TrEMBL record:
<dbReference type="InterPro" id="IPR046947">
    <property type="entry name" value="LytR-like"/>
</dbReference>
<dbReference type="GO" id="GO:0000156">
    <property type="term" value="F:phosphorelay response regulator activity"/>
</dbReference>
<keyword id="KW-0597">Phosphoprotein</keyword>
<dbReference type="InterPro" id="IPR007492">
    <property type="entry name" value="LytTR_DNA-bd_dom"/>
</dbReference>
<dbReference type="InterPro" id="IPR011006">
    <property type="entry name" value="CheY-like_superfamily"/>
</dbReference>
<dbReference type="InterPro" id="IPR001789">
    <property type="entry name" value="Sig_transdc_resp-reg_receiver"/>
</dbReference>
<feature type="domain" description="HTH LytTR-type">
    <location>
        <begin position="137"/>
        <end position="236"/>
    </location>
</feature>
<dbReference type="Pfam" id="PF00072">
    <property type="entry name" value="Response_reg"/>
</dbReference>
<feature type="domain" description="Response regulatory">
    <location>
        <begin position="6"/>
        <end position="117"/>
    </location>
</feature>
<dbReference type="GO" id="GO:0003677">
    <property type="term" value="F:DNA binding"/>
</dbReference>
<feature type="modified residue" description="4-aspartylphosphate">
    <location>
        <position position="57"/>
    </location>
</feature>
<protein>
    <submittedName>
        <fullName>Response regulator transcription factor</fullName>
    </submittedName>
</protein>
<dbReference type="Pfam" id="PF04397">
    <property type="entry name" value="LytTR"/>
</dbReference>
Length: 236
């Protein structure tokens, strides 16, 4: 049975959103999880929902699609939809899977979707392979030793001489450790110190701005002294 791919539409034009929704409904393995008239509205979906394919307009008021895409840490497969051909080069520089020039027909839409599905599947297969080879950490807490894959750790909070590990399954482990040591030990797994009290797993960051980042609905502050490093790491 073929999996379903969650699609998010971001376009300030109602007609464009309606057309994309109609096209998506024609393909059984696609599903619309959100249709937004602005990037700011779309941020909530990207934090809460598992979006596989993002249909993104470029010319929009408040925040254009190109700048918005740069703020997304964990990017889905992106298909730009716009009436302006001059943005084609920019879209590919941002690793978009395709560029639909308005007006476009259903056949051109299907070609773009096939590319996006291919990218999503390749990413999924790569993650599964990595997961099977991933080493584990042994964390001592509550008079037990926990066997924890690094990928399952969302973030770590410093509590004076203790640290608190927050895991994917909503489990929390409190352990006697220092953030300074963990910062060095976990850097190889794409963890980063973003505040004097927080280390985050960058693979789980769903959105960010100048003063904070989000892991799902959890907001984590970015310390002033770490801001430039975080900005560089996330290509902001």
């Amino acid at each position: 049975m073929q999996r379903r791919y969650n699609c998010l539409i971001v376009d300030d034009e109602q007609l464009a959103r309606t057309l994309l929704s109609a096209y998506i409904e024609k393909i059984p393995h696609l599903e619309v999880v959100g249709s937004c008239k602005s990037p700011l509205e779309a941020m909530n979906y990207l934090r809460e929902d598992n979006v596989d394919i993002l249909f993104l307009d470029i010319q929009m008021p408040e925040l254009n699609g190109v700048d918005f895409l740069k703020t997304i840490a964990q990017q889905p497969a992106v298909i730009f939809t716009t009436a302006y051909a001059e943005y084609a080069v920019t879209s590919y520089e941002l690793d978009a899977v395709d560029y639909l020039l308005k007006p476009f027909g259903f056949d051109r839409f299907v070609k773009a979707v096939n590319k996006a599905v291919e990218k999503v599947d390749a990413k999924s297969n790569s993650s599964e392979t990595k997961e099977t080879k991933e080493e584990v950490l042994f964390i001592k807490g509550d008079q037990k030793i926990y066997k924890v894959p690094p990928s399952s750790i969302l973030y770590i909070e410093g509590l004076k001489e203790y640290v608190s590990y927050f895991l994917e399954n909503q489990q929390r482990i409190i352990s006697l450790h220092s953030l300074t040591k963990l910062e060095k030990e976990l850097s190889q797994y794409n963890f980063m110190r973003v505040h004097r009290s927080y280390i985050v797993n960058l693979n789980h960051v769903t959105a960010f701005e100048r003063h904070a980042l989000w892991i799902d609905k959890e907001e984590i502050p970015i310390g002033k002294t770490y801001r430039d490093t975080v900005k560089e790491k996330l290509n902001w």
